């Protein structure tokens, strides 16, 4: 979703801003812009489309050592040049970029800005017009900024420039993520560290309701109330090469291939000196004290949560409910007496999940975040965090984060079980090692999946995924992958449920992907395949070695039944990838989607 960058220092800011915006492309956007300040004023360039389109219109000869930039994912107003950021105040003095949603913008417009003519349809423009209004009424810029912020309801990460005042980037945030980066003779602003790793790895976290003044040689942080805040920088533990594609055509393929490595890294990281899987005992006690666990997540992380439920209930014997974050806030179930809330989020920034976290914290319940991003909002704000150690995931379609989430939840389940003396009946470290090997075998068999996807999905507008038990959960993920990057309408169904309505959609040639990795339901799912084949469907059965039959299209190596999602999802990820390639889709940046969904 929207991304922000800013630079103030010794060098020309233009290229640093554009490169920073390119690093934020993965978040999803539909337009982009930059503003560069020099002795002649502030110069704005913005364009609908990609950063490459923006580059085409930026004046090559313009120089300026201060600037801000933005990628926009439209919420209020269509994607267009006019609605793109930066936005300027009526006189052009103030220039601002914003990530988030100002819920009361119409009210503010009516109450304070009835005589100002707006140029865009955005909620953002109200912020920059308010700052100017209060300055015209006699307030200093900082006070006008403070007064404006106290009026805003909603989420924001924002940065603005004052063409007439001092050379400063004014910054503030509430709910939406924003960091300040520190350098020698320069400072930067960024929605995430990746954008500015090109110039620094030292960052300062900003908290909600803080105002920050960023100059070439200093960063001043104040609470909205005026109190000055001190904060130490942290080093972003990211290697610039982690965020490069290397020889891969798309990040998604690179990230699929990284999965065996990620699983091995997780095993290593969660092992103690005796080689046993281990997690902070305080977390394990909190898990075991809960009489029910509520998993809150969205999209792929929700799908991983469903598998997590199976793992926790089977191994640690604690009942689990899995909830879609955006529903939970206003449709909360009757809670148990001693709940624990687990938030699963690759980015750690999903606004829907954060809204639930804030709410349940107010209610006084313990919270644990499982995330890939240390220092992310959900990680900072929960009582405990378990990290995925998957490395940056850049492709919008989540792949290695999904398998990492399941692996970490498996470890949590096993450690919690062992802590209370329950026997799990298998050695998880060893089983996860086998999973990593199996994943490697699958990554080496890409050509087969590519051929299947060509034969199977080339001429279709829809597709169904069926499975039973844990396979059904993987089907939900497989169908999400296919639809989000190839735009083929796809749905995941519990095998037995299809005939209760949806079977009406099966026509001659409708593709059906069926998963058969569970011995207890192997025959039932095959029966469900027969039902749809009898109505003309074209099946692709993906089974596990040992349960396979002649009719199967693809067989995955055998792993422990509970861990099959880690392996069976790989051919589904590849199927989606190749289907998208065949259709000429932009695999890493699918239309309308954002990597980090920072608005509710
Ligand atoms: O960062 P999160 O895991 O909280 O994101 C949740 C969803 O937005 C995300 O999983 C989304 O569904 C992916 N694009 C799916 O590939």
Give a written overview of the molecule:
By secondary structure, this protein is α/β, with parallel strands linked by helices. The protein folds into three domains: 3-237, Glutamine Phosphoribosylpyrophosphate, subunit 1, domain 1; 245-441, Glucose-6-phosphate isomerase like protein, domain 1 (Rossmann fold); 445-600, Glucose-6-phosphate isomerase like protein, domain 1 (Rossmann fold, 3-Layer(aba) Sandwich), CATH 3.40.50. 35% of the residues lie in helices and 22% in strands. The chain contains 18 helices and 25 strands. Strands 3-2-4-1-10-9-11-15 form an eight-stranded antiparallel sheet, with helices on one face. The chain has a seven-stranded antiparallel sheet with strand order 5-6-7-8-12-13-14, covered by helices on one side. The chain is globular, with a radius of gyration of 25 Å. The termini are close together. The mean pLDDT is 94. 5-amino-5-deoxy-1-O-phosphono-D-mannitol (M6R) binds next to helix 9 and helix 16.
Summary, kept brief:
Helices cover about 35% and strands about 20% of the residues. The protein contains 18 helices and 25 strands.
């Amino acid at each position: 979703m929207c991304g922000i960058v800013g630079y103030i220092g010794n060098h020309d800011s233009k290229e640093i801003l554009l490169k920073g915006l390119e690093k934020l492309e993965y978040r999803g956007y539909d337009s982009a812009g930059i503003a560069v300040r020099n002795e002649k004023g502030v110069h704005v360039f913005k364009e609908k489309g990609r950063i490459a389109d923006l580059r085409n219109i930026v004046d090559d000869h313009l120089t300026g050592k201060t600037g801000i930039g933005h990628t926009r994912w439209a919420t209020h107003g269509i994607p267009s040049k006019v609605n793109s950021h930066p936005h300027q105040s009526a006189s052009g003095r103030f220039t601002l970029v914003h990530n988030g949603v100002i819920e009361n913008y119409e009210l503010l417009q009516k109450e304070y800005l009835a005589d100002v003519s707006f140029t865009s349809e955005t909620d953002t423009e109200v912020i920059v017009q308010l700052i100017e209004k209060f300055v015209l009424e006699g307030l200093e810029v900082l006070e006008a900024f403070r007064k404006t912020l106290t009026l805003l309801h909603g989420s924001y990460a924002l940065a603005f420039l004052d063409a007439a005042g001092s050379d400063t980037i004014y910054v503030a945030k509430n709910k939406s993520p924003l960091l300040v980066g520190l350098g020698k003779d320069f400072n930067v602003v960024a929605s995430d560290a990746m954008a500015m790793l090109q110039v620094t790895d030292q960052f300062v976290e900003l908290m909600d309701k803080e105002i920050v003044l960023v100059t070439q040689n200093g960063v001043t942080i104040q609470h909205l109330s005026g109190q000055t805040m001190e904060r130490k920088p942290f080093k972003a533990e990211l290697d610039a090469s982690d965020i490069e594609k290397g020889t891969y055509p798309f990040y998604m393929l690179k990230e699929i291939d990284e999965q065996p490595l990620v699983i091995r890294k997780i095993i290593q990281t969660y092992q103690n000196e005796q080689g046993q899987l281990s997690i902070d005992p305080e977390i394990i006690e909190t898990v075991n004290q809960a009489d029910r666990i509520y998993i809150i997540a969205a999209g792929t992380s929700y799908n991983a949560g469903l598998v997590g439920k199976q793992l926790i209930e089977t191994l640690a014997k604690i009942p689990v409910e899995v909830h879609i974050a955006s529903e939970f806030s206003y449709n909360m179930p009757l809670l148990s007496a001693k709940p624990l809330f687990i938030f699963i989020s690759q980015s750690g920034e999903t606004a829907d999940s954060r809204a639930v976290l804030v709410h349940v914290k107010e209610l006084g319940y313990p919270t644990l975040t499982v995330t890939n991003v240390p220092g992310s909002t959900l990680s900072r704000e929960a009582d405990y965090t378990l990290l995925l150690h998957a490395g940056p995931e850049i492709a919008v379609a989540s792949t290695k984060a999904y398998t990492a989430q399941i692996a970490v939840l498996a470890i949590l389940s096993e450690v919690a079980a062992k802590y209370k003396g329950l026997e799990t009946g298998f050695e998880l470290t060893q089983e996860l090692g086998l999973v990593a090997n199996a994943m490697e075998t699958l990554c080496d068999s890409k050509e087969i999946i590519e051929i299947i996807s060509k034969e199977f999905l080339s001429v279709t507008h829809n597709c169904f995924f069926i499975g039973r038990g844990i396979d059904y959960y993987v089907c939900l993920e497989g169908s999400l992958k296919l639809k989000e990057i190839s735009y083929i309408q796809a749905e995941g169904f519990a095998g037995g449920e299809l005939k209760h309505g949806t079977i009406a959609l099966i026509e001659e040639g409708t593709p059906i992907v069926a998963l058969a990795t569970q011995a207890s339901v192997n025959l039932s799912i095959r029966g469900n395949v027969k039902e749809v084949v009898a109505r003309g469907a074209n099946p692709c059965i993906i089974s596990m070695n040992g349960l396979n039959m002649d009719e199967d299209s693809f067989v995955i190596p055998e792993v422990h039944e509970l861990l099959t999602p880690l392996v069976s999802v790989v051919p589904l990820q590849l199927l989606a990838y190749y289907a998208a390639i065949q259709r000429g889709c932009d695999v890493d940046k699918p239309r309308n989607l954002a990597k980090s969904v920072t608005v509710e």
